[in-house]
């Protein structure tokens, strides 16, 4: 449990059976240059893999246990905020981690502007033996912070659906908030997309938000065809319902040729051609099936969504793949 001290930043992390990744997450917090001003608020949904016992060793961590049946991406985070001592709240997840010691300090500097209510960074795939080389982060330029604010709600509302969506790529894998902003504008009670919906509501309300992609956390899942199919369908459904348009997530035939080209360019194992080919095919199939369902009727789309995506799928870690003797060529 946290000892009483001056807390400036509360880090909120939903956890369930996170032992595969919690150690590197905690190490990423321990290297922060402002560690003395930080608390980590773990919202645990019934872990039984030793996660709770592991977390007990860290005085800057406090664990709040909830009934797994009550977990909800929006409502659970709202509850977590009530447990936070910090003036600022940093949202992330149990399998994201950083090696950047100044990450939180750099994000915090944006709040020197009293009108800034939130700062969002970028999740990336690190170059490691246990990650997909086609997804490795390969920056081409140095990003600059982008400040977004509209003079009134009408200015934002009058934008086209795609334009609105462009400003709402918010991400609770790496986002910092002024706590008062979350208290005044809590997350919606949804199973997916609470972060993007918050950004939309914040811009309508006139909040100033910042996208600063100099701030990054590592985050990765092996995305199998079934995972990709369901995840793509969920994303399409969410965007359609929340922003009113169908995002083009189709995969042109040229993309499959590019997979072969990139594999040769990066000089990686040929198994990644099959892995990525199947993943792209699953994404394209989800896009086609989504449009077919919507073409029948919106009611039909709702039924198909309920059938296909009753549960948001979770990606699998490479460690679990090895433990189950996963063979890529048999996918």
UniProtKB/TrEMBL annotation:
Record InterPro entries: Glyco_trans_2-like, Nucleotide-diphossugar_trans
Listed Pfam families: Glycos_transf_2
Keywords recorded for this protein, A-Z: Glycosyltransferase, Transferase
Listed CDD domains: Glyco_tranf_GTA_type
Domain Glycosyltransferase 2-like: from-to ranges: 10-135
Molecular functions (GO terms): hexosyltransferase activity
UniProt EC number: 2.4.1.-
Protein's recorded name: Rhamnosyltransferase
């Amino acid at each position: 449990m946290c000892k009483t001290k001056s807390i400036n930043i509360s880090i909120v992390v939903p956890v369930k059976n996170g032992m595969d990744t919690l150690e590197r997450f905690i190490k990423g917090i321990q290297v922060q240059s402002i560690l003395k001003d930080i608390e980590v608020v773990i919202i645990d949904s019934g872990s039984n893999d030793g996660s709770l016992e592991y977390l007990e060793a860290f005085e800057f961590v406090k664990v709040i246990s909830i009934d797994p049946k009550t977990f909800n991406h929006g409502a659970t985070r709202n509850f977590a905020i009530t447990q936070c001592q910090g003036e600022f709240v940093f949202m992330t997840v149990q399998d994201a981690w950083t090696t950047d010691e100044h990450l939180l300090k750099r994000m915090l500097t944006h709040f020197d502007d009293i009108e800034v209510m939130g700062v969002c960074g970028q999740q990336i795939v690190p170059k490691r033996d246990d990650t997909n080389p086609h997804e490795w982060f390969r920056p081409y330029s140095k990003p600059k912070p982008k400040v977004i604010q509209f003079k009134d709600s009408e200015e934002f509302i009058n934008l086209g659906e795609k334009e609105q969506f462009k400003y709402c790529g918010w991400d609770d894998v790496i986002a910092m908030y002024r706590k008062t902003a979350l208290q005044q504008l809590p997350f919606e009670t949804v199973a997916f997309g609470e972060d993007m919906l918050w950004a939309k509501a914040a811009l309508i309300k006139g909040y100033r938000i910042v996208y600063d992609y100099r701030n990054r956390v590592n985050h990765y899942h092996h995305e199998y065809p079934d995972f990709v199919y369901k995840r793509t369908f969920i994303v399409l459904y969410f965007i359609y319902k929340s922003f009113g348009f169908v995002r083009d997530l189709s995969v042109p035939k040229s993309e499959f040729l590019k997979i072969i080209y990139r594999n040769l360019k990066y000089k990686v194992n040929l198994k990644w051609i099959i892995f990525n080919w199947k993943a792209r095919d699953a994404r394209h199939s989800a896009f086609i099936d989504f449009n077919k369902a919507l073409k029948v009727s919106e009611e039909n789309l709702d039924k198909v969504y309920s059938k296909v995506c009753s549960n948001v799928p979770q990606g699998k870690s490479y460690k679990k793949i090895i433990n189950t003797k996963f063979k890529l060529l048999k996918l």
